[in-house]
Amino acid sequence: MSREAILTNKTNPFVEGIDSFFKVSERGSTVTKEIYGGISVFLVSVCALFMQIQIIIEAYSDNIPYCGIYLASTLVAFIGTMLVGLICNLPLVQTASLSLSSVMIGMLTANAGLTYSNVLAITFVAAIVYAIISVMPVTKKLLNEIPLPIKKALPAALGGYICVVALDHMGIISDGGLASIAADNLGGASVAPYVRLCILVGILAVLLAFWNFARKADTPIFTALYVASIVFFLVAAVVGGIQFSYVFSQNRIWIGVNPDKLGEMYTISGAIKELSIGKAFVEGFDFSGYKAAGGNVLAIFVEGVLVFFTMGMLETNAATLGANECGEFLIDEKIDSKVFIVNAFTNIVAAVVGAPAMSVGKSSAVATSDGAKTGFSSVVCGIGYFIALFTWIPFVILSTYTASVPEYGHAGFVFPNVIQASFQIVDGIMLFIGIRMFGSIKKAKDLETFDLLICIFAIIFTIATRNLLYGVCAATVIYFVVSVTSKNKLSGSDRTISLYMNGVAALIIMIFALYHTGAATVTSINETETAATQNATTTDATTSADDNYADFTFDTATGDYSFNATEDVDYYTVWIYPVDADGEMGSEYVAASSRITDKGEISGNVDISSLSFGEYYATLNGFAESGNKDKIIVDFGVSGKLTTPEFSYTVDGNEVTVALYDDTLDIYNNSEMFTDIDVNIMDSEGNTVLTETLTDEDLVGQLMGPFVVYTCEKTIELEDGDYMISMKATGDGGRYAESSDESEVLSLSVKEGENSDGHTSNVVEEE
């Protein structure tokens, strides 16, 4: 198949068939644009899918079947995207919905006794209701009678929301994104320059997209994606000297070869076993725990169905209009009701297999920005989703940072870390999409004053709450109240049945939202108090959380542990977390046991030999289908005597520059503790004439791709004369790092206009 054939949609039976079925030429597109648009939206959407999974995993518990949720989500996204392409013939994709996932999380945190299976059952019923309403003739009428200022606000509000989330994930506007990783206990200041590189490559992606769009490139997004990726790998990989053979050997590309230490490495067979197929029916309709806690089953179903149905239609509406804003494909901006029917069916499938709720993805605008106008681009994206069921290639290509170390995680903690990845280039592309969507606000300039204020309020409130549902519902409530109470008929506010339906539904949803906000606050306070209690009670001795497991002992010298494992806990792990200077436990463990599934008296060992000096928590974690158990925490410290410093010096006239040897510095940074280092200058008789101190302020990092090479040196001015010089690491007052022995004493001669140098005997000079 020639490129010319693809470009013209002619001369090739296959291309002509695609062109005829999807009406590609009729809509002013080409098969090439559809393919590029499909590839672009897939690359962005699969990364967005990973981010959604990360949020769900973090929100529920540590006992999340990573592999099962990934497989279920990707499978449902594949089915939904193929259906919207083949049935609706629109350039839209379906993916896990952050807003709907937030609703699920909110329901769980606000309602004691409610389980994930219960929420799946509610989602299933809501999807059925959604599907029934979607096929009703009145649905199309109701959708077209959304209050005008709200309809005008939808794409701009979604665009503003996307911009804020993208900027956050890029680490530009808050500590919630990559910027926070610079202080991570597993990375620390050593990776800060790499983090800045990630942020810069995200900004580069934005600029490339705008430049391509300004020069009217055929595929501005696809080009920005691959150019930014090439730049990133050239800087981070080639200059930094990463050996890609190591990357491949650790199975960051093809999956299912090397099992993870905790049994969480993704394989298709393992993921199938973790699927929650049918739990919505087997366990989901058992609300005994919820009722025992005082819950009202009818009320929770009414709330769930109303919120899921409204949010599903709203997100699908907004994402479709936003995609149309970036590349017109709708006729008179009217959405075919088949889109909502397909979305409803997709959510039925999602509930059955235990996947998060789905909606038309905000990333659909990526395809339309590249010129896609038909469902063929969706089919291309769907094929990408299918491939992603078996390989991480699409995801890994755009991964810039994981929870532990640069780029690809670490062997032994593969899936938990890789699943918590950041995608700077994709975030940059979504920032570009958000800005373009937000530009639709110019279409509201013809609205009357009242309608314009409602439109602006909806946009601002959506951005402020980072929730499209809340923003639109709050604006709808105001619009409804003012419209029905005004003595004079306001522009665009006809008192129709749809106005009352929209207003009442929005009011109910806002009441639920306020309730969940209060409940979430109470939950947060309780969790804080629990953590404070745990921290206050941890000692070097055994601590017990409850009767679910007891007698946990941890040998702080060897890492040996023992405890009694009970039948009601599915499995256990022992994780080691670092503790910072404020007594806060780090977010990532630094050592771990294997997954423990045996029962009775258990004993084992966690390798703590490589831990650097400092304070740690050893935690026993119990995971069960009925709910995870409180951690048992043992507080311990790793201590020892600091290595005797090796150093070199150079004399340039009256200036003496003292440099700590790289190997010594590496030992301090990686396995011991960097503390103040005294530089003692003595006269020829051994009397101290001057003491200078090397501190962390004297550390200078040089970026080498994703790695940072540190040096530590200080320049001292001395008068002419003969001296002796030595070093000693001072320790931290005996808490963890004991002061080192004094180094070898060297002689040095200082004389204006003369140069010399020297070093301790264990310093190896570079050739």
Tell me what you see in this structure.
It is a single chain. By secondary structure, the protein is an alpha+beta fold. Helices cover 48% and strands 15% of the residues. A five-stranded antiparallel β-sheet has the order 15-16-12-11-20. Strands 6-5-8-9 form a four-stranded antiparallel β-sheet, with no helix packed on it. It has a four-stranded antiparallel β-sheet with strand order 14-13-17-19, with no helix packed on it. Strand 11 (647-652) and strand 12 (655-660) form a beta hairpin.
Quote the beta fraction. Answer: 15-25%
Number of continuous helical runs: 25
- Kindly name the structural category: alpha+beta
How far apart the termini lie comes to 56 Å
Helix content: 40-55%
Main sheet summary: 5 strands, antiparallel
**Average pLDDT figure:** 76
Strand order of the largest sheet: 15-16-12-11-20
Total E-strand runs? 20
> What characteristic shape results from the CA principal axes?
globular
Radius of gyration: 30 Å
Poorly predicted regions:
183-190, 241-264, 403-417, 491-495, 517-548
